[in-house]
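Give me the fold.
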Amino acid sequence: MGRDRFREAIEAALSGRIEPNLFEECAVSLLRDEVPTLVLLAGGDDHGLDGMSSDGAVGLVVTTGDAISNLRKNLSRHLKTGGQTRRILFATPRSLTNLQRRNLVNAASGLGFDLAEGGVYEQKAFTERLYRNSVWRMNLLGIPGAPPALSEYPLSLRPSVDIPLVGRREELAKLESASGDVLLVGEPGAGKTFLTERLVASGRALFVVDFDADRLADALRDMCPATIISEDVHFQGQEVLATVVQLRKSLGLDFTLICTTWPARAQEWAQLTHAQNSDRAGSAFAR
């Protein structure tokens, strides 16, 4: 299967030279989905922090250099200058190992600060956020354009959380071994995207994020996925299924299609899938 070169370009740029002050601005802006009132602390009156929530309850340390030494330096300065914030977030454009993340948490704890592992935002977190933020992607990395029609990230981008695959292996195995197209049914929040993201992470599939026929055809030719996933098809309309099925036939490709939908729309979409796609109709299972 072809790679998501758009994602790879972002990762490569984040691994290269990043202007520190610009990345601070970017990190504060992109992390407002976690702390809506986060503001940039510019200049010398920052008490060692680069950002802070408006109520002072949450602080942000940002670095493009050595992670742990900069964290220690900034938090030590915060203490020495009388800063009162103890809950901390940490941001870096570099990739961190699990051990490095734990070391950051432990270093902060040793100085009396609360930095949970979920509060460490490294390259993966910023790749996901910059993937569809064209303004910051261009300003920070100089990467223009739009993501391809097939992506490693779902259409409704939700920054990923590393959650163990507990009690879900049988369901994932069903998706992996499907011989025909699949309709995955479940209420909102039931974990449909969790399963499909695991399938994508295994290198077996890509999400459809643009249903323009020309752009989708280009992506299918270039990336040649074994499986494509169309999330929440009840929102996309019947033409979505027709476009995908027609492209599969006209391009002579053999990918499996996984569609997700809600229980209230399951029968409607199962019938439509069979009618338009009887030669590839596979299974439907609930989540």
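Residues 150-286 form a domain with the Rossmann fold fold (CATH 3.40.50.300).
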